[in-house]
């Protein structure tokens, strides 16, 4: 029986391994992590992450050929194939701070593999890493190898949170990069054989190691660039009276462009886009390519601009001050169908409004109060100017409350901001919400989920990203 061990039981390691276990009953899969609370959650009824369809997959194979454990060394030493799916955040200190990937977790996983292994291993990079990481990992592994042979593969993960299970069952492609040597090809084939249990062969792409590592960064950069492109257009739409949904539709009909990923919004978030682009920027700079670095940096600058623009719209529309006003925040996760708040635009929007002394009442169907308070209290790392901004003061913390539903959040509020596109926000009883709000009642739709005309008929003043402006909003000078 082939044994797989995955180091890192997070948003990638957990779902990816559960889908492998379900599709390959003859393979034993152990997912290990140093976090005791995460592993107990994976072994309990309330999984540590929310992802549609995940519960069913885990329940079908947990205890049969899928195991979650904190006994990292035991499972690593017994495995034939080791996936490394640890976090690779942006470095916050030292050389490359604010841009480069922090490979501390990766390095410690690699050292541990080298220490405990007693047989040959295939080590798979599942985490997103800088190009050439495999070379460094190889050095760590072979430095003290005691005759053990390692083959390093790059197998970046392309799942999107919120649709992870669907993406894993039916991937657009599986990418496997390896050394172009007989042993390298053999290792690639071994991993290919696993995916071939359910992925059609023509969707399994094999490349050299560096192409696989770079393709993941490139894919995220292209995706984020599309969002920043449409968001940049949304500002121009507001200035000219064009409607960004109509423009996106017309542009997306071109088969060379395609219709997906063209929705204007308050900005992209999530743990990957910003971090991976910063990493790409850093790699370009290190390779003496400042023009290429600046090109990609602009994708993040437009994203920051879009979040600032949104806050400015809110403040300027509300008589240039939100001080002491209650503002309901609907949605805090970085996208719908996930509870993940890493780099969510909601953090920046909330901090912007708190900076103007607003009182916030926040509701998200999947994010806990603890998480929201933690996120808002956290230092924000300003990547362009590597300084730590001040954390929230105790008085600011008092300006934030968390509500149990959208009606409680909006009661007596002056405005509501929709920051995540949760389906339930489309079908709220907006007449009831309007009746319970202060007047004039404002809606700032950062995801274009509500029908602005219907809401205007109820009496709301509505701002939708990239849409022709409400006369009220238009006549207030925007501080963009
Ligand atoms: P995560 O933070 O949810 O999970 C990482 C886990 O690794 C944590 O539970 C942590 O405790 C564990 N860990 C760290 N060091 C360890 C060690 N030495 N031994 C054992 N466990 C250790 O991160 P994630 O979102 O799953 O992302 C993992 C990687 O996958 C990152 O490189 C990320 O860029 C990449 N990725 C993420 C996504 C996504 O949508 N989240 C998609 C594709 C790729």
UniProtKB/TrEMBL annotation:
Q: Could you cite one Gene Ontology molecular function of this protein?
A: NAD binding
Which pathway does the protein contribute to?
Nucleotide-sugar biosynthesis; UDP-alpha-D-glucuronate biosynthesis; UDP-alpha-D-glucuronate from UDP-alpha-D-glucose: step 1/1
* List of catalytic residues: 272 (nucleophile)
Q: List this protein's GO terms for biological process.
A: glycosaminoglycan biosynthetic process; UDP-glucuronate biosynthetic process
The alphabetical list of record keywords is: NAD, Oxidoreductase
NAD listed as a keyword: yes
Q: Enzyme group, top EC level?
A: oxidoreductase
What sequence ranges are listed for the domain UDP-glucose/GDP-mannose dehydrogenase C-terminal? Answer: 328-452
Q: Which GO terms describe its cellular component?
A: nucleus
Catalytic reaction(s) noted: UDP-alpha-D-glucose + 2 NAD(+) + H2O = UDP-alpha-D-glucuronate + 2 NADH + 3 H(+)
EC annotation?
1.1.1.22
Instruction: State if Protease is listed as a keyword.
Output: no
Q: Name one Pfam family in it.
A: UDPG_MGDP_dh_C
What SUPFAM superfamilies does the record tag this protein with? 6-phosphogluconate dehydrogenase C-terminal domain-like, NAD(P)-binding Rossmann-fold domains, UDP-glucose/GDP-mannose dehydrogenase C-terminal domain
Family recorded in the similarity comment: Belongs to the UDP-glucose/GDP-mannose dehydrogenase family.
**Name by which UniProt lists this protein:** UDP-glucose 6-dehydrogenase
State the species of origin: Hibiscus trionum (Flower of an hour)
From which lineage does this chain's organism come? Answer: Eukaryota, Viridiplantae, Streptophyta, Embryophyta, Tracheophyta
């Amino acid at each position: 029986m082939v044994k797989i061990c995955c180091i890192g039981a997070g948003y990638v390691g957990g779902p990816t391994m559960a889908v492998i276990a379900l599709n390959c009953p003859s393979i034993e899969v152990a997912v290990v992590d140093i976090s005791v609370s995460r592993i107990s959650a994976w072994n309990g009824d309330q999984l540590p992450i929310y992802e549609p369809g995940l519960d069913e997959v885990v329940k079908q194979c947990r205890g049969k050929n899928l195991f979650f454990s904190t006994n990292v060394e035991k499972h690593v030493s017994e495995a034939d194939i080791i996936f490394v799916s640890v976090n690779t955040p942006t470095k916050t200190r030292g050389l490359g701070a604010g841009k480069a990937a922090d490979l501390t977790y990766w390095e410690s996983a690699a050292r541990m593999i080298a220490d405990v292994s007693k047989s040959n291993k295939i080590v798979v990079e599942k985490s997103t890493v800088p190009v050439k990481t495999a070379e460094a990992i190889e050095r760590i592994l072979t430095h003290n190898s005691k005759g053990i042979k390692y083959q390093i593969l790059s197998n970046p993960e392309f799942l999107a949170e919120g649709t992870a299970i669907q993406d894993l069952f039916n991937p657009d492609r599986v990418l496997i990069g390896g050394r172009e040597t007989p042993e390298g090809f053999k290792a690639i084939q071994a991993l290919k054989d696993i995916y071939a249990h359910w992925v059609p062969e023509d969707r399994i792409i094999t490349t050299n190691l560096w192409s696989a590592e770079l393709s993941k960064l490139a894919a995220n950069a292209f995706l984020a660039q599309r969002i920043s492109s449409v968001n940049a257009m949304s500002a121009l739409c507001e200035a000219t009276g064009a409607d960004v949904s109509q423009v996106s539709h017309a542009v997306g009909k071109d088969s060379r462009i395609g219709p997906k990923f063209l929705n204007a919004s308050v900005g992209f978030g999530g743990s990957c886009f910003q971090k991976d682009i910063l990493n790409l920027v850093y790699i370009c700079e290190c390779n003496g390519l400042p023009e290429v670095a600046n090109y990609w940096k602009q994708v993040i600058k437009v994203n920051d601009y879009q979040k600032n623009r949104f806050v400015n719209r809110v403040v300027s529309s509300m008589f240039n001050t939100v001080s002491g006003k209650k503002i309901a925040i609907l949605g805090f996760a970085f996208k719908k169908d996930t509870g993940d708040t890493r780099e969510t635009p909601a953090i920046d929007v909330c901090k912007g409004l708190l900076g103007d002394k607003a009182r916030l009442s926040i509701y998200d169907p999947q994010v806990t109060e603890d998480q929201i308070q933690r996120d808002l209290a956290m230092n924000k790392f300003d990547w362009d100017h590597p300084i730590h901004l001040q954390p929230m003061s105790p008085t600011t913390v008092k300006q934030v409350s968390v509500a149990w539903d959208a009606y409680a959040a909006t009661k007596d509020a002056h405005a509501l901001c929709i920051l995540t596109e949760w389906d339930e926000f489309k079908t709220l009883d907006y007449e009831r919400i309007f009746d319970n709000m202060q007047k004039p009642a404002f809606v700032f739709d950062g995801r274009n989920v509500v029908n602005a005309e219907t809401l205007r008929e109820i009496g709301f003043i509505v701002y939708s990203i990239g849409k022709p402006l409400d006369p009220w909003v238009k006549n207030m000078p925007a501080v963009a």
